[in-house]
């Protein structure tokens, strides 16, 4: 078969397959164009999940009429200088508009600030209609109708309208977080209107926009991040360990203002939360990385969703270190959702109570109470000689005849030490069900799971011991040779010194192999071959030796679980208070090794609301 040149329409349709995956991809490209044009207001309207209509309007710089034809030509852009490594805009490839025009009906109407009128150009399935005068305000409006009508096979791979609309909403939210000063609106017949009002460009304004997108719960349960290392800056907010989600969709990461989904960064976030979250839960984060554009390659993929860092180890180390430091410095802090869940449980229990104390009907019990009260009042007024205090005396006698103290409440009557109520976890007042410590602060009630709390304390002590000295190693009677691809063997050899600190002694053994002479004593009998291959995979994926440390941490976690205060053990008041003080001094003690909360705080104001006092 002879070689021939593809038609321009075919070239654009192939490019569209790379750039335009679904309607949300179109919205992303058009909104990025609006932001690169300096827009302060971006309006998005859709219909049919974006397949029938997408309209993006902005108040940016606009496009001059002579340049409209260039805007829909491939590889034409105003955003790229002569240095491909110095990219400071969201878009730069010059493929979005011609790709959209090749598979849909595209209309662009634009007006620059100094033009007397606007101009309009249209493209339908790759066929261009020449530019003509039009009426419009300053800025640009791009309308896309009947997406993929020119390539109907792509329509079979689209999801339902609701799923496509949800994807568009997610794209707009992700972009809007990085631009808090821009007013975004998203509307259409297939969605509720999203209206994100502009905020200031400072840290407070960014937090306001984050709350608009993610809800007010996240700012209330997050920690601020502000760190830098070797000209790489990191800022944003990360959730406390007790505030999690079932998936990683609530992780928003930006590199020089560009929203990305990067495996390296996702791995770093998992590593930072490795031993404070349950295995099936994910942290909520909003992180902004800023670095020299020449140190990051955003041209890896046409859709610009992936990036590549010149020094990935530096970026990963910065994220892991900054997040762990923030968690350590935060002290002990419960998620506000815990108290909300408790309030909800109390309300649900109250609603399940029968409406009547006796009889039938919702008001029977209330009517009986009224009759009893009336009779009681009549009895009092009919016997003026009887002192009014008689009723109180009778009740007092009933209280005195009952034994209120139990073996589990020995701490509740002890005198509070001076100032202890000012501390984060206050003073222990009781132990209930031989497992839960009830403590009192100046403005709240604390319930602590004694086993989970002590488990975290023991685990942190074991980890600190592991980090302060080399892990004891056990010599293998017969050294084990593990065959590997040459590149994996070389990576392991490079990190041999790190492995030795964790008790694993290995070295090169000819081409494509390593020999293992020692393994960590904590692991006991272990599958050496599988361990080495797992480490090689970890190094290939993230260039870190964290897999071995993670195994040692899991062993330490198991040891902590078996060595901590067991459920069902009665504790003395001084033991309870000592546990609370240790929790306050131990980073990460708000969750156990398995990621479950170690305590719940219920504010006095919440308790008063439960009893109708507020």
Please give a structural write-up.
The structure is a single chain. 38% of the residues lie in helices and 22% in strands. It is α+β, with helices and mostly antiparallel strands and 614 residues long. The strands form six sheets. It has an eight-stranded mixed β-sheet with strand order 5-4-3-6-2-1-7-8. A five-stranded mixed β-sheet has the order 9-10-15-12-13. The protein is globular, with a radius of gyration of 33 Å. It folds into three domains: 8-196, Heat Shock Protein 90; 215-329, Ribosomal Protein S5, domain 2, CATH 3.30.230; 334-348 and 404-614, formyl-coa transferase, domain 3 (2-Layer Sandwich).
Tags for this model:
Heat Shock Protein 90, Ribosomal Protein S5, domain 2, formyl-coa transferase, domain 3, eight-stranded mixed beta sheet, 19 helices, 24 strands, 22% strand, globular
Produce a short descriptive summary.
The protein is α+β, with helices and mostly antiparallel strands and 614 residues long. Helix content is 38%, strand content 22%.
The secondary structure category is alpha+beta
Q: List the total number of helices.
A: 19
As laid out across the biggest beta sheet, the strand order is 5-4-3-6-2-1-7-8
Shape: globular
Helix content: 25-40%
Number of domains: 3
- The average pLDDT value, as a whole number, equals 80
Quaternary structure: single chain
The CATH topology of the largest domain turns out to be formyl-coa transferase, domain 3
State the low-pLDDT regions, or none.
Answer: 355-413
């Amino acid at each position: 078969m002879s070689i021939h040149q593809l038609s321009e329409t075919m070239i654009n349709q192939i490019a569209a397959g790379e750039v335009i995956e679904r309607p949300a991809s179109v919205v992303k490209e058009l909104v990025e164009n609006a932001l690169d044009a300096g827009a302060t207001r971006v309006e998005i309207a859709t219909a049919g999940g974006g397949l029938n209509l997408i309209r993006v309007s902005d108040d940016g710089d606009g496009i001059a009429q002579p340049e409209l034809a260039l805007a829909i030509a491939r590889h034409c852009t105003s955003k790229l200088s002569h240095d491909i490594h110095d990219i400071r805009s969201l878009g730069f490839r010059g493929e979005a508009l011609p790709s959209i025009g090749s598979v849909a009906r595209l209309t662009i109407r634009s007006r620059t600030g100094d033009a007397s009128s606007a101009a309009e150009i249209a493209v339908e399935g790759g066929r261009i209609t020449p530019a003509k005068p039009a009426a419009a305000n300053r800025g640009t409006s791009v309308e896309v109708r009947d997406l993929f009508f020119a390539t109907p096979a792509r329509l079979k791979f689209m999801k339902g309208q609701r799923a496509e609309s949800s994807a568009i909403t997610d794209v707009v939210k992700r972009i809007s977080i990085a631009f808090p000063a821009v007013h975004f609106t998203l509307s259409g017949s297939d969605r509720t209107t999203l209206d994100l009002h502009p905020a200031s460009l400072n840290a407070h304004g960014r937090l306001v926009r984050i709350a608009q997108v993610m809800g007010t719960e996240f700012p209330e349960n997050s920690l601020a991040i502000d760190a830098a290392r070797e000209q790489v800056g990191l800022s944003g907010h990360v959730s406390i360990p007790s505030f999690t989600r079932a998936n990683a969709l609530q992780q928003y990461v930006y590199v020089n203002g560009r929203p990305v989904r990067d495996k390296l960064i996702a791995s770093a976030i998992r590593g930072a939360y490795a031993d404070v979250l349950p295995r099936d839960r994910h942290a909520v984060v909003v992180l902004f990385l800023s670095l020299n554009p020449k140190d990051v390659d955003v041209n890896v993929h046409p859709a610009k969703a992936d990036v590549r860092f010149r020094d990935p180890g530096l970026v990963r180390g910065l994220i892991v270190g900054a997040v762990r430091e923030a968690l350590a410095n935060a002290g002990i802090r419960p998620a506000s959702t815990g108290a909300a869940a408790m309030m909800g449980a109390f309300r649900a229990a109250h609603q399940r109570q029968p409406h009547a104390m006796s009889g039938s009907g919702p008001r029977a019990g209330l009517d009986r109470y009224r009759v009893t009260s009336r009779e009681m009042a009549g009895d009092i007024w009919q016997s003026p000689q009887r002192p009014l205090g008689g009723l109180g005396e009778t009740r007092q006698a009933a209280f005195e005849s009952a034994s209120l103290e139990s073996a589990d409440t020995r701490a509740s009557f002890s005198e509070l030490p001076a100032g202890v109520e000012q501390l984060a976890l206050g003073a222990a007042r009781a132990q209930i069900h031989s497992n839960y410590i009830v403590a009192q602060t100046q403005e709240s009630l604390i319930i602590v799971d004694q086993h989970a709390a002590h488990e975290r304390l023991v685990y942190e002590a074991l980890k600190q011991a592991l980090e302060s000295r080399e892990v004891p190693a056990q010599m293998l009677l017969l050294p084990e040779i593990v065959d590997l691809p040459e590149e994996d063997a070389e990576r392991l050899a490079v990190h041999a010194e790190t492995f030795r600190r964790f008790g694993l002694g290995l070295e090169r053994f000819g081409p494509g192999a390593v020999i293992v002479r020692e393994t960590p004593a904590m692991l006991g009998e272990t599958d050496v071959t599988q361990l080495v291959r797992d480490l090689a995979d970890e190094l290939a994926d993230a260039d870190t030796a964290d897999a071995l440390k993670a195994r040692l941490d899991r062993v330490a976690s198991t040891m902590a679980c078996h060595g901590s205060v067991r459920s069902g053990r009665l504790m003395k008041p001084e033991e309870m208070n000592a546990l609370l003080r240790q929790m306050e001094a131990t980073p990460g003690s708000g969750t156990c090794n398995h990621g479950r909360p170690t305590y719940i705080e219920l504010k006095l104001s919440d308790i008063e609301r439960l009893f109708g006092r507020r």
